[in-house]
Structure formats: structure tokens, C-alpha cells
Design a protein that fits this description.
- This is DRTGG domain-containing protein.
- It comes from marine sediment metagenome.
- By secondary structure, the protein is an alpha/beta fold.
- It has two domains: 215 residues, P-loop containing nucleotide triphosphate hydrolases (Rossmann fold, 3-Layer(aba) Sandwich), CATH 3.40.50.300; 109 residues, HprK N-terminal domain-like (Udp-n-acetylmuramoylalanyl-d-glutamate--2,6- Diaminopimelate Ligase, Chain: A, domain 1).
- The chain has 15 helices and 16 strands.
- The two termini are 32 Å apart.
Length: 343
């Protein structure tokens, strides 16, 4: 989960289109549909559809949405969900040269209905490219397990979010081991802080907060978090070291609010259900800095944000443009084309 599959698919689709291939997209199973307008939709599928102007409706791009009602009905009636996936695949394939199929959050997702990644690959006769998020010394374990499960269907792997300082060591030690075990490593994508940033709106939604000021600036990306629980002099030094940040502090700490507004701050998150002074709200409005009111304590707010910060979805234009640049420079398209026997 949050390994970067959707981002990688966007990179592949753009490159393939530039090379003249008609590309399409299928996400057989969505385990996390959300309400958009009046219907449920998968956010990743919706993003790919809009970004690449895909003509197919979302109902065909995502043939199985595992909502509570769908799961209950499928278990009761033993619905043939794999056939639904195969029908969508055949229809979408008819209009494309290459149809990219996005797997689940892990190899097991959907297995209860015969729709795990290995089962879908077998059903649709697909080669598999695995995306793994860098995890220090443990990176590679999940790829070796995937090789054991998928066998020859695994055509390669991409490792995402590799820290710059660890790239050479990893490339010279772990990558050769994976290559010796017949796992081509097609890309080592460097970690970029902007790609893990969250919008101000996502932070507000994540803590169920109330926006008191600057609502028109809630699309701004937050790259860092800072907690203002110290004296104002120390706070200023601390805040200056963290650009594009969200400052989390008590609603009654006007000194900290002012210090935050003197530095590169994307939003103020004020805790304890304590409203700031009218002067703080006015200054934040003037500077275009949103203020979010949290009903939780500072500690509870920080703990809540830490559960999802750095794991937000890849759906902002700034992120897309940066990732596409990174992907083009760090992915071995020549080797992929050879494996897939493309021209």
C-alpha cells in the first residue's frame, strides 16, 4: 500500500503514448472506493482517467468495488466476480495496444473472491511488474516473496523512494542479489519530500478539523510538520529550519502563532478546541495561511496526522510533474521494452 503504483502507471502511460502506443487502464478491484458526488469511485482510477482523458466509464475501468454491500452479496451468492473482470479486460483491450492493469495493495488483496494479484494475472494471462517502497535493510524481501509466488510471470521490479545517501550502497549490494535470482530491477526511484506531501485540505480532513481562515489556500502542499510547544525564541529557530510546514500548537499560544507566520508556514493547526485571537486570524488571512481548529489535544493531533502524513495519494499536479521527471530519468524503458517484446 502507498508503494507508488498509480504514480508509476502514470509514468508508463505517458512514455508509451509518446512512443505512439494506444494505452488503456484497468483496476480490476478497488478495496477503497469513496463517495464522489453521488456515487462511489476509486480515487486512483479517477485520477488516471482524468489525467489521460480515458473514454471508458469508471464502472468499466473498475469493474469490482469491494464495498460492504458488495462483499456481503458476493459471499452470500458466490457471485462470479472474476468473469466481470475478464469481460472488462476484453472490452478495454479491444481499443488499446497496451492495457495497464493495476494490482491491489498487496498480493493477497481480493483473494477471497478469486481476485488476488496472482489469480488475476493467471485469469488475464499477464506479466507482472512489482513496485516496492524502500524499507532500508528489509527492502527486497517482499520482492523475493513475490518472485516465489508469481514465478515467471514476474518480469521485474521497481523500488520507490530510495534515499539519496543509500542509493549507491543498495545498488551495489542488494540489487545484484535480486538480479541473480532472475528479478530484473528496472528502476530505483529517488525519494523526494514533495511527493510525500499532503495538502492542507487533507490535513484538515484527516483530523476532522474546522477551517477558520484561508480556505482558498487549502490546496497548498505541506512538506514538513512542526510542533510549537516551546518558548518563542526556540520556536523561531526551529520553524526556520522547516520550509513549507504545518505548525501544530495550542490555540491559546499567540506568541507561537506569530512566530509561525514569520516563517515558511503552509497552515496553522490549533489544538484543544481553542480559538485564536481575531488579530491572528486577520494576519493569517492577509498572508494566505489557512488556520485549522482541532478538537483534539496537541499530542492527539500529532499522533493522528502521523498516521497518514507521508502516505497521501498522488493526485496533485505538482506531484505528477515532479514524478514524471524522476521516472523518465530513473527507469529502464529499453529493458522493459525488451522483456515485453515491444518495438
Amino acid at each position: 500500500t502507498f508503494s507508488g503504483k498509480t504514480a508509476l502507471i502514470a509514468g508508463l502511460m505517458q512514455h508509451l503514448r509518446q512512443d505512439g502506443y494506444r494505452t488503456g487502464y484497468l483496476k480490476p478491484v478497488s478495496a477503497t472506493p469513496h463517495v464522489t458526488g453521488r456515487r462511489l469511485a476509486d480515487a486512483d482510477a479517477q485520477f488516471i482517467k482524468q489525467t489521460f482523458d480515458l473514454a471508458a466509464p469508471l464502472s468499466k475501468i473498475v469493474p469490482v468495488e469491494l464495498t460492504a454491500s458488495v462483499v456481503e452479496e458476493a459471499l452470500r451468492s458466490k457471485a462470479d466476480l472474476p468473469t466481470r473482470v475478464k469481460t472488462a479486460f476484453d472490452e478495454l483491450s479491444a481499443d488499446t495496444d497496451i492495457l495497464i492493469v493495476e494490482g491491489g495493495g498487496d498480493l493477497a488483496e481480493g483473494g477471497l473472491f478469486g481476485l488476488s494479484a496472482p489469480e488475476i494475472a493467471e485469469l488475464l494471462d499477464l506479466p507482472i511488474l512489482v513496485v516496492s517502497r524502500y524499507a532500508a535493510r528489509l527492502t527486497g524481501d517482499d520482492i523475493l516473496l513475490a518472485r516465489h509466488i508469481l514465478g515467471d510471470r514476474l518480469i521485474g521490479a521497481v523500488i520507490n523512494a530510495v534515499p539519496k545517501r543509500e542509493r549507491d550502497l543498495f545498488s551495489n549490494t542488494v540489487v545484484p542479489i535480486l538480479e541473480e535470482r532472475s528479478i530484473p530491477i528496472l528502476g530505483l526511484l529517488p525519494r523526494q519530500r514533495l511527493l510525500t506531501a499532503a495538502t492542507v485540505r487533507e490535513l484538515a480532513d484527516g483530523i476532522n478539523g474546522k477551517i477558520l481562515a484561508g480556505e482558498e489556500y487549502t490546496d497548498a502542499l505541506v512538506e514538513n510538520l512542526a510542533v510549537g510547544a516551546m518558548g518563542v525564541d526556540h520556536a523561531l529557530t526551529h520553524f526556520r529550519r522547516k520550509p513549507n510546514k504545518a505548525v501544530i500548537t495550542g490555540g491559546d499560544r499567540s506568541d507561537i502563532h506569530l512566530a509561525a507566520l514569520e516563517t515558511s508556514t503552509r497552515c496553522l493547526i490549533l489544538t484543544g478546541d481553542l480559538y485564536p485571537s481575531p488579530q491572528i486570524i486577520a494576519q493569517a488571512e492577509e498572508q494566505g495561511v489557512p488556520i485549522i481548529l482541532s478538537h483534539q489535544s496537541t499530542l492527539e493531533t500529532v499522533e493522528t496526522i502521523n498516521q497518514f502524513f507521508g502516505r497521501t495519494r498522488f493526485h496533485e499536479t505538482q506531484k505528477l510533474e515532479l514524478f514524471l521527471q524522476i521516472f523518465e530519468s530513473n527507469f529502464d524503458f529499453t529493458r522493459l521494452y525488451q522483456v515485453l517484446a515491444l518495438g
